[in-house]
Amino acid sequence: MKGVWNKPRIVFVTWAIVELVGWLATHYWPDPRVNWVWLVLTIIGFIPMVLYMPMKSVKLRKIMVLWIVAVGFGMVVSFLVFMVPRIMWLISYLGVFWLLLMGVAFLVNARWWTPRLFIIGGVVQIAAGLLPLFIPGLLYYQYLIAAAAGSGGMLILVPNK
Q1: Which of 120, 83, 76 is nearest to 98 (CA)?
Q2: Is 77 a residue whose pLDDT tops 90?
Q3: CA atoms within 13 A on the CB side of 1
Q4: Nearest alpha-carbon partner for 24 in 33, 34, 14
Q5: 7-28 vs 94-109: helix axis angle to the nearest 10?
Q6: Does residue 22 contact residue 38 with C-beta atoms inside 8 Å?
Q7: 64 vs 3, higher pLDDT
Q8: What pTM was computed for the model?
Q9: Which residues touch 30 (CB under 8 Å, ≥6 apart)?
């Protein structure tokens, strides 16, 4: 059983749980304070990355920087949409925004590690993010879609060794 739970799998499953809990919280508690829940969940998600990714590797340092920048940018946008009147219209599209952002980050991550799995995960999230834009009736369900696609995108990576 020890070989099953290697370090990458622990990271991916942790993030899958973080995304599932975060998106369900966002759907069922549509309140700006949910960003603080996300902040705590994000810290929980980064803990195994920091613990398990050897920073001596240039490739893994690039991956860590990618995710810190992507998630940091997303968190800043998520907080600002509730404070800056000019961009408040984005509130209705935060799930879509995050799916597109994470999908693109997955595709960039594919440059450095297990390209096939990260490309699949990225395409899943981008497609899920575009779905509510093409089928407006799904916009209400964007956070549930994000829960499924975001967690699913992370679980796609579990076969990594």
Answers
A1: 76
A2: yes
A3: 0
A4: 34
A5: 170
A6: yes
A7: 64
A8: 0.93
A9: none
